[in-house]
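F.,

This is the one I mentioned.
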């Protein structure tokens, strides 16, 4: 194993030594490296003096640990009345006895700081900072981590010598093997797929409605394009609200459907496109550009170039970076999923349930024999009955418009 020894004169020595070696042998190696006689060396680990007869493994010294070395000569030159280990010693909890002196020693050693930036950048930043309390907290945390690692190693060693026919021991061995696999998978992910641990920002683009700019949440997992009541009012669209399409949208959660705005122009890039909206009473979600309009306008979500292409590519608008998205929007994503999910349906305020081509159920007046005659006529053209009923109800029973929609789909 490798251990690091810091001397009182700020010299850093890295030694490769067997964990079962004695402290006396360690001092002998240090005598060669530092020219400090073995008899004048005083070694400290976690604030406690290491006796010559002790084994490193018995003291809990592990791979990568730090040992402090004070020579008797330097002790005699320490300040009057101050213990020799006060400058560089450690408390039992892992914190430095004199954090300011410890911090200064490390700052003055460029090689040690370079190693720290590689192995523990958080601790390196704390050493370069001015918050000694943060430094002490980190030292205590690292000590706890070493203690926990030591405990786990001791448990693993105990399992190796456990009775192979002991059921409880076998369960612990199985759990240890499983946890080891998880830890190895986690370490591999950190090395080869670190972006998996970063937050994924959802897709937003700039649009305009009635000359008013807004940031639209692009969600191909939502069946309908959704706008909140407050946003529709701000954009001057609430006067077009058709309340016949009231209902309850059921998804991950549920929201009240106030109605539908059948068509309004939205500006994407430099071109205007017709768009229909389902209006929800959802103050936490402003505007969601759903799958219905993505399909209608032949949109392409191009993640390679990080743009939304509209109209088969005639317009390309960039997705917004995280800094360009208002902070309140970053919490809207979960509300958007609650408002409209892939299986969203609506419970109407009255009469019957239907799923409109916009994928949000709503309420419209039912029809009698005349309606059934239209259904039969369109079914004869080769369309499914449910498909025909949805189209007729969507176009308020207009047979020609329903047929045009079915043939166009």
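My design for it:
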């Amino acid at each position: 194993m490798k251990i690091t020894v810091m001397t009182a004169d700020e010299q850093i020595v890295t030694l490769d030594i067997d964990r079962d070696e004695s402290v006396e042998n360690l001092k002998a190696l240090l005598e060669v490296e530092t020219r400090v006689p073995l008899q004048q060396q005083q070694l400290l680990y976690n604030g406690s003096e290491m006796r010559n007869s002790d084994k490193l493994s018995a003291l809990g010294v592990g791979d990568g640990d730090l040992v402090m070395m004070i020579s008797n000569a330097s002790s005699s030159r320490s300040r009057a009345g101050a213990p020799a280990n006060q400058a560089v010693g450690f408390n039992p909890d892992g914190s430095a006895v004199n954090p300011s002196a410890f911090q200064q020693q490390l700052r003055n050693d460029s090689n040690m700081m370079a190693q720290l930036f590689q192995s523990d950048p958080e601790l390196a930043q704390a050493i370069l900072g001015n918050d000694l309390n943060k430094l002490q907290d980190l030292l205590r945390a690292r000590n706890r981590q070493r203690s926990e690692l030591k405990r786990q190693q001791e448990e693993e060693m105990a399992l190796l010598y456990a009775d192979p026919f002991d059921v409880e021991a076998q369960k612990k061995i199985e759990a240890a093997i499983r946890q080891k696999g998880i830890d190895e998978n986690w370490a591999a992910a950190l090395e080869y797929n670190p972006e998996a641990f970063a937050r994924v920002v959802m897709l937003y683009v700039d649009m305009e409605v009635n000359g008013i700019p807004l940031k639209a949440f692009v969600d191909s997992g939502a069946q309908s394009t959704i706008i909140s009541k407050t946003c529709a009012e701000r954009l001057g669209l609430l006067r077009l609200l058709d309340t016949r399409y009231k209902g309850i949208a059921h998804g991950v959660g549920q929201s009240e459907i106030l109605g539908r705005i059948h068509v309004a122009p939205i500006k994407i890039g430099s071109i205007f496109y017709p768009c229909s909206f389902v209006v929800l009473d959802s103050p936490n979600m402003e505007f969601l550009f759903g799958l219905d309009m993505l399909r209608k306008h032949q949109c392409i979500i191009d993640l390679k170039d990080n743009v939304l292409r509209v109209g088969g590519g005639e317009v390309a608008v960039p997705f917004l970076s995280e800094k360009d998205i208002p902070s309140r929007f970053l919490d809207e994503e979960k509300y958007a999923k609650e408002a409209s999910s892939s299986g969203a349906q609506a419970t109407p305020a009255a009469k019957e349930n239907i799923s409109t081509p916009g994928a949000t159920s709503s309420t419209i007046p039912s029809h009698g024999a005349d309606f059934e005659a239209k259904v039969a006529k369109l079914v004869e053209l080769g369309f499914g009955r449910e498909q025909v009923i949805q189209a007729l109800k969507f176009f308020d029973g207009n047979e020609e418009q329903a047929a045009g929609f079915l043939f166009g789909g």
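Residues 132-160 form the longest helix (29 residues).

Talk soon.
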